[in-house]
Design a protein that fits this description.
The chain is mostly helical. The chain has ten helices and no strands.
Length: 201
């Protein structure tokens, strides 16, 4: 492992992951800062609560893209698949602990999907399918995210037939579930908001 070249890679992955597309897209569409309404989370689901589907779509695409980009860029630079997946994990950490938001970033669902797409498209498509089924059945984005996070390491292991990639995805899933602690509390108390409740006033 070439440590001198690995360190700049991981720093770059972190900075890419730190770009807060929820805030950027909200400013482009003239919306309020997503941290000021709804759940306060700078992510696509909360931007959707502004009433702008376009801004939410841009946020979703940007957050997903940066996760994929970190994995792809590492591979393009000649790093092996494991290091590329590690770069994706670091980009995910950058999203959750964004240096541009004083280390208070999003929950990482879209970025996690992008990382999975970089590791293996079949993994991402399977997890996306699980997320969609759960969100359609429950109308809770948080329930879909938690369910998908729980099964993602298993899906990764089945697809890659490796112990290393599931371990990286397990770390990603653990952080994602931890970031949903408040959602879990609201789900248990029956106060969690469902998708599609409209624009926040």
């Amino acid at each position: 492992m070439d440590i001198p070249s690995l360190i700049p890679l991981l720093i770059g992955a972190y900075l890419v992951g730190s770009v807060p597309f929820a805030v950027v897209s909200s400013r482009l569409f003239g919306l309020k800062d997503p941290r000021s309404y709804g759940s306060g989370n700078p992510g696509a689901t909360n931007v959707l609560r502004s009433g702008s589907k376009a801004a939410a779509a841009l946020t979703l695409a940007g957050d997903c893209f940066k996760g994929w980009l970190a994995v792809w860029a590492a591979s393009a630079l000649g790093f092996d698949a494991v290091i590329a997946a590690l770069a994706g994990l670091v980009a995910f950490v950058g999203h959750v602990f964004s240096v541009f938001l004083r280390f208070r970033g999003g929950k990482g669902v879209a970025t996690a999907l992008g990382v999975l797409a970089g590791i293996g498209p079949a993994i991402a498509l399977t997890c996306l399918g699980i997320w969609l089924l759960v969100v359609l059945a429950s109308r809770y984005s948080s329930v879909a995210a938690l369910t998908t996070a729980a099964v993602a390491p298993i899906v990764t292991g089945l697809v890659t037939r490796s112990m290393v990639f599931p371990a990286i995805v397990l770390a990603l899933s653990a952080i994602l579930i931890w970031r949903h602690a408040a959602n879990i509390g609201r789900l248990l108390s029956g106060t969690e908001e469902k998708i599609g409740r409209g624009k926040q006033r």
